């Protein structure tokens, strides 16, 4: 497919900070990214090596951690490296690749969070049938659907954007390649593409968010019949899930469910869902969860015993 553009690379304006701040941010974001990698890896290792964490909830959680690692790795390393350079460039191909992977992992995460809500719904509203409904093959199928859904969504976004003509200027007012900042640089009418992009991204975020909302309302209503101990445990699990959902969906809906006018706040909001949320997820899921904390302690003591031997 021949592109009607003569832009071979884009210049990323980044977070547009003063040089002094850029060096501070380099260290700060490097710490954030390290926490994302270590926190999420710790969850994956704990779930995989712990016999007590074999329920579907933890099966989904380990995949969520994997997606978080991939998702933040699409934008964070480049952002961190760019803090050290005055001119932040990215080739056209790398830009499209970044756009693809960003939407692929982002959309997969949206679907995974929705699957996790379904899992909680079955666990709390149909406890007697939980193990027969949420079998390992059903869970694997739901995870596969999330990945395939993310792939299809991302292919549409990337193909729609890649076929736009870019003939300069080539400055992207962002720290990574996303649909809205790129639309502004296209030298043709992007109205139809914008509508398709908003429908694609926005409607996925919004419809999944409504599904999640409804499932949690049903869960909360059904908890009235539970014992106070059961209610407390269910509420604790759901609270951490709802927190993650709000942190992730809020910014997504704000960015993608509107025309492609870009606001100066967009970059800050993007930092939130590309870096802050993947960093907070492991904390939210472990701090509120005794089972995970106990499994981590056991894993830690096992490692210590092995070292001592």
From TrEMBL:
Coiled coil: none
Ranges for domain G-protein coupled receptors family 1 profile: 39-285
Principal location: membrane
Name assigned to this protein: Olfactory receptor
Entry-linked InterPro entries: GPCR_Rhodpsn, GPCR_Rhodpsn_7TM, Olfact_rcpt, Olfactory_Receptors
Domain of life of the native organism: Eukaryota
Keyword Membrane: yes
Record-level GO cellular component terms: plasma membrane
GO molecular function: G protein-coupled receptor activity; olfactory receptor activity
Record family assignment: Belongs to the G-protein coupled receptor 1 family.
Membrane topology note: Multi-pass membrane protein
Database matches in PROSITE patterns: G_PROTEIN_RECEP_F1_1, G_PROTEIN_RECEP_F1_2
Transmembrane segments: 26-45, 57-80, 100-118, 138-156, 191-223, 235-257, 269-287
Keyword Lipid metabolism attributed: no
PANTHER family named among the record's database cross-references: OLFACTORY RECEPTOR
Keywords for the protein's UniProt record, in alphabetical order: Cell membrane, G-protein coupled receptor, Membrane, Olfaction, Receptor, Sensory transduction, Transducer, Transmembrane, Transmembrane helix
Segment forming the signal sequence: none
Gene that produces this protein: LOC102380447
Compartments (UniProt record): Cell membrane; Membrane
